[in-house]
Amino acid sequence: MPAAEIPTPPTAATTSATARGQQIVMLLAASGSRLSAHIGERLENIDLAHNVPVLVLCELALRGPLRPRDLLEPTHHTSGALTKQLDHLEQLELIERSYGTVTGDRRGSLVSLTAKGQRAAETIGLAIEEHIHEFVLMRDELNRLLDE
User: Fold this and answer.
1) Where are the extended beta strands (E) located within 8-108?
2) Fewer CB atoms < 10 Å away: N or C end of the chain?
3) What are the C-alpha distances in Å from 41 to residues 37, 94, 121?
4) pLDDT band for position 31 (50/70/90)?
5) Quick one: which H or E segment has residue 73?
6) In whole angstroms, what is the distance from residue 120 CA to residue 105 CA?
7) Alpha-carbon gap, residue 136 to 138, rounded angstroms
8) Handedness of CA 128, 60, 54, 145 (dihedral sign)
9) Residues 34 and 138 sit within 8 Å (Cβ to Cβ)
10) Distance (Å, rounded) from C-alpha 148 to C-alpha 17?
11) For the chain, what percentages of helix, strand and coil (3-state, to nearest 5) are there?
12) Cα–Cα distance between 76 and 51 in angstroms, integer?
C-alpha cells in the first residue's frame, strides 16, 4: 500500500498563516488537556475524561434519550467503535439502553442516562464552569491570533 502523500505548502507567502494555524492547534490542545485532566479528577475516573464519554454524557444530558446512531456525528466515531464506548458506559452504570422502545422499529434501541450518568454529566458541566476563566483567556488569545 503506498504511503499517503503530504502536500508541500508554499513557502514565504504562507509562513505567518502556517505559524498562526499551528499556534491555534497548540492553544486548543493545551486547553483541552487541562480541562480533560480536571474533568477526570472531578469524576474520579480519568478514563471518563476522554472525548467520547464526555460527549455522550453531555449530549444525552442536553437532548435526552437518543438512538445510538444519533451519537455518531457528535462523537465522530464509527458504529462499531461507538458500540464499544456505549458498552463501557453501560458497564459503569452511567447509561442504559432500552430495546424495542423506538416507534416503528422493534429492534431499535434508545440510550439514556442513569441517575449516576446524570450526576456525571452535571459534574462535567461544573468542572468546565470552574475553569471558565480559561475560555476567556483562550478567546482573547484566539482573537489576537485571528487579528494578525
Assistant:
1) 95-99
2) N
3) 6, 17, 14
4) confident
5) helix 72-75
6) 30
7) 5
8) negative
9) no
10) 9
11) 70, 10, 20
12) 10
Grid cell, residue 147, equals 487579528
| 84 SS3 class | helix
Q: Which residue in the block uniquely carries the three cell numbers 444530558?
A: 61
Rounded distance between C-alpha atoms, residue 32 and residue 92, angstroms = 24
Distance CA 43, CA 10 (A): 46
Q: Are 117 and 89 in contact (CB under 8 A)?
A: yes
Structural domains in the chain?
18-147 (1.10.10.10)
Residue 46 grid coordinates: 480519568
Q: What is the pLDDT of residues 33-82, one digit of tens each?
A: 888 888 999 999 888 888 899 999 999 999 999 999 999 998 898 999 99
Residue for grid cell 459503569? 92
- Whole-prediction pTM value? 0.78
Residue 49 is classified by DSSP as G
At 44, list the grid cell. Answer: 474520579
Q: Is 71 helix (H, G, I), strand (E, B) or coil?
A: helix
